[in-house]
Amino acid sequence: MSSKRQALRADVQEGIQNRLVQGNWRPGARLSIDGLARELEVSPTPVREALVALEHSGLIEYQALKGFVVAPPLTPQQIDELIDARLVLELAAFTRAFGRREALESDLRAAHEAHSAIAERIAAAPEPDYALIHEYFDADSAFHEALFRHAGNHYLGTMREVLNTHGHRMRQTWSEGAERIDADEAVAEHAAILEKVQEHNHDGALRALRSHLEGVRERSIELGTGPTGR
Amino acid sequence: MSSKRQALRADVQEGIQNRLVQGNWRPGARLSIDGLARELEVSPTPVREALVALEHSGLIEYQALKGFVVAPPLTPQQIDELIDARLVLELAAFTRAFGRREALESDLRAAHEAHSAIAERIAAAPEPDYALIHEYFDADSAFHEALFRHAGNHYLGTMREVLNTHGHRMRQTWSEGAERIDADEAVAEHAAILEKVQEHNHDGALRALRSHLEGVRERSIELGTGPTGR
DNA sequence: GTGCCCCGGATCCTCTAGGATCCGGGGCAC
DNA sequence: GTGCCCCGGATCCTAGAGGATCCGGGGCAC
Questions:
Q1: Can you give the CATH number for the domain in which A40 is found?
Q2: A164 touches chain B (CB under 8 A)
Q3: Last residue of a domain, one of B70, B86, B119
């Protein structure tokens, strides 16, 4: 541990964030600084720093003299606002990225192939595989990330990352009961976007992207309010 | 100091942020943890936490085993991207806020009056008054903030805050030489927006807002590249 | 039985200590 | 004179200690 100094805070932060995203702790659970330090076999100081750095992601909240707690799940209202904000960002990013249509098309196609491949593996799996679902979310996210990579605006990408973290928070809630993912619909909608891009059809692709996000909104709120009847 | 525990980290953070925004340290300057701790008469631990929390604002950067340094000034390219991102956010926020036109108009008018009042005081002042300039920036910012207050989307507001911090970083650079502010132009452009809102003219106001931000872009880049000849 | 008070453990917050690392300057070899 | 090496001070990073605060449970008064 002496050779890899200051991998500590980064490692601790990554470890905690992974557990948060995977839903190891329920919303409202207290994240004891001393407890985490014992568990990770480090001193409390780097744990505190990691939690402070994670606070702005929205995954955890801080209360003075009481510590950090896992943020409560998103309400349907918040999910609605989150997708709405994504719409604003992604439509803008798409239009800017369309200026480099060829590079964009190339990246979108690659991301789409990876995405649909994982979707097929999920469909073939007999029962939910959490690691696979995690991969699926990453692949899905990569498709959208491609829009920002070519948008030529660093700040749009930064804002996407902020929203993406909240998206993790949303999916974290689902993992508790509803593992069913409408992978097919998302893949089909991505395919529609890609197709329009290949046809040099900017406005059509924009409509397809908007339509896709509307679909995400509906499916998310449906899962949020819950098929379990809540 | 025993009664107001855990005002410490917040106080330290606020103090450091104020100094950063006011440009007390030049870009590239090292922020010594121990030094700040001695200066603020606290131990290094809360200083570390405050710096970690400030890192995501973009005002400071972190390098392992070397510490924190004041972020370099924005390049004209970055300024361009920053304003472009503001355009995306503010146009979207405006359209959403126009749904509650009356409340929006009320807030915009109040913000505009405060803004123009300060602009007059600046014009009347014989020489640059830093405190007054600071107030001016806040008043200017408040006008735009009103758009988001009525947009009904929490995430748009969050993203605005992120961009706003980078805006501070931009203005921080100016303060070094060019105190001249084109307050009149900004006030006139705000007035144009307000006028269209009062006329129930959504599209006209949108154009005025876009035009205003284009003006901000031009004036910012002009200041960024510098009348000093840099 | 109900409600209030007290108390002990757990936790947080801050501080101090000490090893590890970085950085700049003087000295030496060539 | 130039370049390299070494070294001392400053700083960073982590650990651990100690006082302050919170929280839950038992006991007592009514």
A1: 1.10.10.10
A2: no
A3: B70
Q: Any residues with CB less than 8 A from the CB of A95 and at least 6 apart, and which?
A: A202, A206
What is the C-alpha to C-alpha distance for residues B220 and B223, in angstroms, rounded to an integer?
5
Which domain-ending residue is among A17, A36, A70? Answer: A70
**Number of domains within chain A:** 2
Residues from chain B contacting residue A89 (CB–CB below 8 Å): 88
pLDDT tens-digit series, residues B87-139: 999 999 999 999 999 999 999 999 999 999 999 998 888 777 778 888 899 99
Footprint of strand D on the protein (CB under 7 A): A 1, 5-9, 37, 41-46, 49, 65-66; B 2-3, 5, 30-35, 44-45, 48, 64-68
Distance of CA B199 to the CA centre of its chain: 29
A166 CB near a chain B CB, below 8 Å?
A: yes
Asked if residue B58 keeps its beta carbon closer than 7 A to nucleic acid strand C, the reply is no
Q: Which domain holds residue A165?
A: 76-225
Q: Is A7 helix (H, G, I), strand (E, B) or coil?
A: coil
Q: Is the CB of A228 under 7 A from strand C?
A: no
pLDDT in tens, B67-89: 999 998 889 999 999 999 999 99
Nearest to A40 by CA among A17, A59, A56, A22: A17
CATH number of the domain where residue B117 is located: 1.20.120.530
